[in-house]
Amino acid sequence: AQSVTQLDSQVPVFEEAPVELRCNYSSSVSVYLFWYVQYPNQGLQLLLKYLSGSTLVESINGFEAEFNKSQTSFHLRKPSVHISDTAEYFCAVINSNTGKLIFGQGTTLQVKP
Amino acid sequence: EADIYQTPRYLVIGTGKKITLECSQTMGHDKMYWYQQDPGMELHLIHYSYGVNSTEKGDLSSESTVSRIRTEHFPLTLESARPSHTSQYLCASSDTTRVPGELFFGEGSRLTVL
Question: Fewer C-beta neighbours within 10 Å, C or N terminus of chain B?
Fold first, then answer.
């Protein structure tokens, strides 16, 4: 069975500092990987996705994630965070048997001034 | 952009009451989902539908029920609410022509049962 583990429940960081949110998955088959973001009092929004091809994927607001098959990881990074990046971030993988999304536990990114 | 709406956003009710959480989408998506979200926990799929008159239970057992009589509408009902049902409920939809896993979410309904 596939699963997703987000290694940090909370990540506090100062504004303009770099950040990495870690995500590991377990799967014996090809995967589709996703990062979703949930801003306070809002629903989830798709941030970026890996389907195939280039292992480095980027979002429009400066986040990027790299698919690493050997380490079964899909860590999310941003070189310089803003206060507005404060949110809950969820890593997710498609269950190849059921076709449904499996979410990690979420990581709260807290950006401090 | 996503057009999926949930009502109510917040609901506080007493034990034993019947409640219905509404979810509507205007995108014509065939697939719809209900997730339960507790603080610090992953989202758990409790119901999904792949089209009108099609509903299935998700990975997490839930006492709630759903219906899909119209493409755009996917309400969730609890016949007799209990404090253990206190949680946030997120509705989502997706299009089979889109990338698998690309879901559009509503803003959620936060339910508190006293």
Answer: N
Q: How many residue pairs from chains A and B have C-beta atoms closer than 8 A?
A: 55
User: Of how many residues is chain A composed?
Assistant: 113
Query: How many whole angstroms separate alpha carbon B103 and alpha carbon B76?
Result: 18
| pLDDT of the residue at A69 | 87
Do residues B63 and B57 touch, judged by C-beta distance below 8 A?
A: no
What digits encode the pLDDT tens for the residues B24-83?
999 999 999 999 998 767 789 999 999 999 999 988 888 999 999 999 999 999 999 999
Q: Which residues contact B39 (CB under 8 A, 6 or more apart)?
A: none
Cα–Cα distance for residue pair A113/A108, rounded to 1 Å: 16
Q: At B17, which amino acid appears?
A: K
Tokens for A22?
A: 């870690």
CB pair distance less than 8 Å for A106 and B41: yes
Q: Do A94 and B100 touch (CB under 8 A)?
A: yes
Which residues in chain A have their CB less than 8 angstroms from residue B103's CB? 44, 46, 101
Q: How far is A17 from chain B (nearest CA, A)?
A: 24
Percentage of chain A exceeding pLDDT 70 = 93
pLDDT of residue A3: 83
Q: Which residues contact B67 (CB under 8 A, 6 or more apart)?
A: B55, B74, B75, B77
